Structures are given as C-alpha cells and as structure tokens.
Amino acid sequence: MSRAYDSMEPKVLDDDMLKIAVGEQGPQEEAGQLAKQEGILFKDVLSLQLDFQNILRIDNLWQFESLKKLQLNNNIIERIEGLENLTHLLWLDLSFNNIEAIEGLDTLVNLEDLSLSNNRISKIDSLDALIIYLRRFTCLRTVSLSGNPVAEAEDYNMFIYAYLPDLVYLDFRRIDEQAKEMAKIKHQYSIDELKHREAQMQARQEAEQAQREKLVEHKMAFIEHLDGSYLFDSLYAEDAEGSKLSCLPGVGELLEVYKDKFVIICLNIFTYGLKQQEKRQLEVNTFNECVQEAIRENQEQGKLKVSKFEEKHLMHLNAIREETDLATIERKLLECSDNISELFNVLMTLEMQLVEQLEETINMFERNITDMVGLFIENVQGLMSQCRDLENHHHEKLLEIAINTLEKILKGEMDEELPDDVRVLFVDKDTIVNAVGASHDIHLLKIDNREDELMTGINSWCTQIIDTVHKDEITRNRKRVKEINQYVDHMQTELDNLECGDID
Length: 504
Fold this sequence. Notes:
Blueprint: E1 11-12, H1 15-25, H2 31-34, E2 47-49, E3 55-57, E4 69-71, E5 91-93, E6 113-115, H3 127-134, E7 142-144, H4 156-163, E8 169-170, E9 173-174, H5 177-186, H6 188-220, H7 230-237, H8 240-245, H9 251-322, H10 326-411, H11 420-423, H12 429-500
C-alpha cells in the first residue's frame, strides 16, 4: 500500500529544498554554515534524508556525486529517475511511494541495500524480468519488495533466492541457507540458461567496448575507418549513377580490382597513421618528462637555498631578540633585510634559468612535433593521390565501357538486357558521359573530404598542443614568481613586526 498526501501540494526537488535538508542534517557548526552558500556542500554530502516531503518527482540530485545513503521513503514518487550521477550510492530507500516499475537504477553499480516496499510494483511486469534486472547489481545484499503486488506472485521467495544468490536479506528477513539451496535446485535449469545468456551478453558488451576503445585510439591517430573498405563504400553510398552503371558488362570485375587496390592504400594510410601516432605520443611523453625533471631539479635547488636561508635567518632573529644594544640591533635588522633581498634575487635567478631552459626545450619540441606532423601530412597526401589516381583510372575504363555499350545499343548489338533505370542513361553520348562524370565527381569529392578531414584534424591537434605547452609554461612561471614574492614579503613582514614589536 502506497503512502499518499492528498491534503498537501505535490513537490519537485529543487535547490532550495535540498539546501534546507543539507543544512538541517549536516553538522551545525561546520556543514550547516557551508550549506547556506551556493551548493558548496552538495558534492561532499554522504547521506541525505528526504522522507515525508510529498515529493512527486526525483530531480536535481546530480550534484550529490559522493552520496552513499539516500532516503526518499513516504513520498508520492511515481517513477525512479534522476539518480544517474549517484554512482557511489550504497543504500536507497524508496518505500511507501507510488512506483510501478523498477527502472532508472542502471548506474548504481555499488548498491547494497534497496528498499521498494509498499509501492505499486506489479506482477504484470513479470517477476523474472524484475529479478533479472536486479542481477546486474552484484553488491546488492538487501532487498525489500513487500507490500507490492509483485510480492504476491507464486513462488516469490524461492524465485528470488534462486536468482539473487548473493542476497542476505529479503523483506527485512535473513535468508536461510537451506532455503537458498532448495531454490537453486528447483530453478537450476532456468538459472543455467540465464547464466549462458548473460555470458553471451557480457561477451558482446566487452567486444563492443573494445571496439569503442579502438575507435578512440584510431581517432587520436586521425585514421578512423581507414582499416577496411569504409571509405571505398562511402564513394558509392550517395552515388545513384555509379550504382546503376555497375551492372554494365565488365564493370563488376573492374570494380573488384578497383576496390582491392583502393582498400590496400587505405590500409597503408591506417598502418602508417598508427605508427606515426606512437611516435608523436613518444615525443610528447619525452617532452613532458624533460620538463618535469627540469622543474624538479630547479625546485630542489630552490628548497636548498630556502632551507639554508631559514636556518641562518632564525639564528639572526634569535640573536636580535637577545641583543640589547640598539645600534647593533639596527645593523642586524638591516643585515637580515639584505639577506631576504639576496634570497629573492637567488630564487628569481633560478626561475629565470628554468625559464630559459624550458624555453629551449619547448622550442625543440615545437620543431620536432611540427616536423613530424608535416612529414605525416606529406606522406598521407601522397597516398591519397594514389586513391585519386585509381579513381581516375577507373573513371576512364568505366567511360570506355559505357560508350561501347551505347554504341552497341544504337547498333542493336546489345545482347544483355539492361534495367529500365539504366537504359534511360543510354539515349545519347552526352547523357552517358554526364552520368559517368557525375559519379566520378562524387568519388573525388569523397576522397578530398576525407583527406581534408585528416589534415584539419592533425593540424588542429598540432596547433592546440603547442599552444597548450606555451600557456602552461606562462602559467607555471607566473605562479612561481607569485610564490617567491609572497614568501619574501612574508619574511620581510615578519622582520618588520619583530622590529616594531619584540624590540620595543
């Protein structure tokens, strides 16, 4: 039986309601204050209680990315939704609502405790479909479905015991191990079939995932879909005239030879592209390692200088505090101030040395990566030219066959019967020449577009990575200079305070 609140107006979760809930439930001395600011605490909240709020729809919870426990019981929620981002959720209570189907939980892979008791989940949806859905949650140990029509199904308990073997509690009762074993034996055949289907599905999913990962890798090399006949097939995908002409005598064999040679060139581009991507990545990795090593060595030198300074500076400060002669104190203060200035100059000199060193490294990287990209483009353009040469050769042969066919038709010597949509192209020479030419233009355009796509991609990557390298170095330098200035200012302020305070 679901919980309803006819006397209250239904609510939708919004930021104001969430802020109030977080503020009331969080530690008052700390989190309660933070919650008053614009959502600053949402991403850090681990537990959220939203029961008895007359909530109609789950919404705006995407910000609670760290949430582990969510209480939404005793509302009027009709559908499970809006939980996609809560991937860390372990405990979910949706009991006493108006939910009719178990859905919208797919991303909650860590779910351990799920309560859906006293809703409207019907056996119309079939118990086996519902349980098969829950099998994906491998961490699930507690499920509550009592109070739903589905729980009235025959063999409800035994069915769940068999199909959810890792479950420990069902409807607030611990599952007896003997009952589990009996359920397993009773449904053994169906479970074995299900496991077989699940294994097949998992294998398909893994294959698809591997394919997606491969595609990402190929896109990074700018040679996606060049490891087969994709580009060749695309030449004819929107070429109505070319498809018609393929039925002419001798064109089938001509196309096979054309396709074989074309695909070999595409495979050459693909193989070459992967090798060049490896070389570019190696260059990037080597550059990053050199930069990090240079920064690390420079930082070590800086730390050593600061450590020696602080040791000496502390001795001076102690000496000043113990000194009673004003003239001596003033001299030592001036000496400390000079030491601070000297440290500033030392640290800034180190930073300038690093800037020069990194500038040289960056310039070398820029030259290397630009040369690599230039060579890649040059070789790919050469291979693409071979594709165009093949297309031109095919065009000439096709045109020759088409004109010979036209002559045979005009002389009445055509033995083969042509489809009506093909025969209309052979009314005169201009018509057939235009048809063959239109097919040729489409093919060349497809080849040119794929070449342009590849060139644009690699050039954009080259420009972006070089720009990023320069910007990162500017940011690093500014940050370091700011750190040096802040540290030196702090030391000088400390000295000034000593002069004004302790000495007086």
